Amino acid sequence: MALFGKLDKIKSSVIKQRRTVFFLSDRTGITAETLGHSLLTQFDGIEWVKISIPFLDEIGKIKAAIDQINQVAVQEGVRPLVFSTLLKPEVLAQVRQANCCVYDFFAMFMGPIEQELNQSFSRIAGRSHGLQHHLAYFKRINAINYVLAHDDGVSPKNFAEADIVLIGVSRTGKTPTCLYLAMQYGIAAANYPLTQEDMGLMRLPKVLESVQDKLFGLTLSATQLHLIRQERRPNSEYASLAQCQHEIQWQQSLFKLMNIPYLNTTAISIEEISAIILDQRGLKRQLYGL
Which pTM was predicted? Predict the structure, then answer.
């Protein structure tokens, strides 16, 4: 019985608290989701059920959102959290009447800013993601187009136009990182996969020699690479742990030999990966207007 008691205690200690969080906005909800998510990551042991309700600009939608919040409160026996970027005071007032705990980002920050600037804010929705900064917007589109046209080693003759060229063996996260760099920073990023043929020699592929100063390597643990490749090609030699270990060891030796900066991405989010790359390579955000 004592053993079962200990097992029950261990089991209960690993069960996560389950809480629901709503992200409410009269526009896309991107700002509420981004800020809210950043705050929630600081709390361990909680399983978050995230519900985003954008474009709350009609009475019917507002009522439906409030009903859903109240329903969750009854079902879970605890108030849901609500992160809001709602601009209309009357809409926010209705939400505050629901059985929830509201965190209004505009109320938190705009009051002190208004006081400092001696000016009321405009309450115009959509400005943070609008097209009022056309040059920055088209810079982003051009960067995304560049990434798509130079993914996975395509058109290496144009790598000289890149801001950075990511290299690494297959499935080390090169493509998603390039896309994130383009979308969030306006960075023209190309990527090149290191292959079995490249592993025959301990040197860079010839197509990369002229852009060595733009190279940045991505690596990760062999175990993580094995799990990722298993999803793509289950039980293949390509996905085997031994093959993954061999490739990771080879590429890290190459990075060190050729003095190529690289990053182990095993336990790092794509946001952190991108920020570290920009910092280490001295690249600047191109999208300050957005």
Answer: 0.69
CATH number of 134-281: 3.40.50.300
Residue ranges in the chain modelled with pLDDT below 70: 1-15, 121-134, 288-290
Using the Cα atoms of residue 262, residue 267, residue 270 and residue 273 in order, give the sign of their dihedral.
negative
Nearest residue to 52 via CA among 86, 27, 24, 31 = 24
Q: Is domain 16-129 annotated with CATH 3.40.50?
A: yes
186-208 pLDDT per residue, tens: 999 999 999 988 988 889 999 99
Closest alpha carbon to 282 in 218, 204, 187? 187
Number of Cβ atoms within 10 Å of the Cβ of 240: 15
Q: What are phi and psi of 194, to 5 degrees?
A: -80, 130
Side chain identity, residue 38 = S
Rounded Cα–Cα distance for residues 221 and 171 (Å): 12
Q: Rounded to 5 degrees, what are φ and ψ at 3?
A: -65, -45
Contacts of 110 (CB under 8 A, 6+ apart): 121
Closest CA to 80 of 108, 51, 122: 51
Token code pair at residue 92: 């926010």
Domains 16-129 and 134-281 alike in fold:
yes
| 3 token code pair | 């053993």
DSSP assignment of 173-188 equals SHHHHHHHHHHHH---
Sketch the domain layout of the chain as residue ranges: 16-129, 134-281
Inter-CA distances, 126 with 30, 121, 176, 235, 262, Å: 10, 13, 26, 48, 38
Q: Which helix (H) or strand (E) holds 216?
A: strand 215-219
Comparing CA positions, the residue from 46, 86, 94, 44 lying closest to residue 69 is 94
Measured CA to CA in angstroms, residue 275 lies from 82, 111, 185, 285 at distances of 28, 30, 9, 10
